[in-house]
Amino acid sequence: MIAKRHLRRRLSQYGALWLGSFVVTLLVMAAMVFGVGMPLAETADLALPIALALLGMAVITGVGITLATDVSLSTKSLITALALLLILPLLWAPVLAVIVTAAIAGASVEYSTAYAQFRIVVSHLIYPLAEMLGEDPLVGFVWQAFQVVASVVGAVASVLQVWRVIKPFLYGEDEQTAEA
Known about the structure:
By secondary structure, this protein is mainly α. It has helices spanning 4-36, 40-68, 73-105, 113-133, 137-171, 175-179. The longest helix is centred in the last third of the chain and has 35 residues, at 137-171. The chain is globular and about 50 Å long.
């Protein structure tokens, strides 16, 4: 049997990670590019590897904690599968923050080595899927579809996390009262 409370907690943490990594990366990028005047590509090359590494460690920690807890094997398997399925949308959050900063600054993010490396790695992951379908122009479409899906998944996860936090203030009900 799946431990729904544990699953909800992990998904809630996922939403918080997505939102937090997006906002923190956006703030760091904005402070460095607009406040300090550092070039966007250099700032992205500093910020992205740190953000991606921290997110990777957070996911590994979350899965590790789940594997070490006293929950069913089905819960552990589901959490691990969801972590693998949602890792790319999660890693997309800081990249999206860099892209937003580039759009606001009117600069090109393609000169960033970290951004280019992220695109290359993701392309290597999604290229076999596009190759099975047989057309090279499809790789560009799959990349764009990934960007949209990753942004939507992250935005929905973030909205749910924010809603979970503000709901008790709006309705005077906390999670334990609702479950009782």
